[in-house]
Amino acid sequence: MIETRTPAERAYLVGLGLPRSRFDADDSLDELASLVETSDAVVVGRAVQQRRAPDPNTWVGKGKAAEVAAEASRLGADVIVADEELTPTQQRGLEEITGKRVVDRSAVILDIFARHALTKEGRVQVELAQLEYTLPRLRGMWRHLERPGGGIGTRGPGETQLESDRRVLERRLADLRARLDEVRKQRERGRRARGREGLYLAALVGYTNAGKSTLMNALSGAGVLVADQPFATLDPTTRRVALDGGTVILVSDTVGFVNKLPPTLVAAFRATLEELSDADLLVHVVDVGHPNLHERMSVVRETLGTLGLGERTVQVVFNKADVLRGAEGDALREALGAEFPDALFASATTREGVDALRARVAAHAASGWRRVRVTVPYRDGALVQRVRERGSLHGTAYGEAGIEIDADVPADLAAELSGKHVGAQRTRR
Length: 429
Prior knowledge:
elongated; 14 strands; single chain; 4-stranded parallel sheet; Rossmann fold; alpha/beta
């Protein structure tokens, strides 16, 4: 049997150079090319138009749109990809001038999320974001449906097929929002249960493809999916990690951020990103070899701010440090070390800095601990194991009244031990 494969779409990229843009237009198009290739398309060409502001009707202006049309046709492009989220009017205007299908950066990102959503929850979130993106664009996408419906069940006083389709989507949106609300409640119940367990939570955050999942595996041996492409991780993965001394914490790997992330995606994935709200420490993983690392760090900080996490304790980790070679690499390491004196340099490939990161996370976890000397009745001996897991047990002795322990433990466990057991003495660390 002869296998046939649909040829990859040929994409022509278009960017807009605007004053005070965070990323240079060409650098932003490089990132867009990576996103397009992750969607299994082939980039055949690109163009940048410098403007003071986007054209409200065609985004790049009629003259540039005509140039794009000619070049895209010459290169045999199937689709034109704009490096911004277009309004429905701009998308229609470009399509009319170029005679080709036009998609924007948001549509590409949504497509990648749809491909990578593995769990039921992830698929619900992606579908919600896609429908919220699609709804205002119905008139342009389905213009051929703007006619009175015909047939049984389609007739109504003045109702068009487009209006009927819109109502179907709105009902579907309401259903998806209700399902996500239930997901949010389930996650809240799970967080409360985990809170009763009391383990310290460190969450890995960062720009997409910064190496969070690889670092997660190095820290925990979790076996998280690692792929050299944007948004390989959508669903958060949380693992228990035993640090030096036996202390157990939780480490969570989360979805990466990206410049110009569609607002619909941020809203849809808020239920997932709420996992970050319980994190005691945010580990900001940065690809140290990327030329736009400062801009990418700003994107992450701003996204965390929109999630109400701007004041959280953050540990910066410059990942992929094995690329820092020679005099140029040494100079960059020195400059970043001076700018971010508390940052760590790490490489999951060479394991440089992994032990230092584990030690630093342990230090953050222990920073709020209390020293306790208590006698635990033998009937509550399970508490001693909790002390071993959550704190640092310095010594035990077995007396007539129970197990005498000397330990540094988190504040909540210190209060529980001191309030319930005899012979309690507590000193602040």
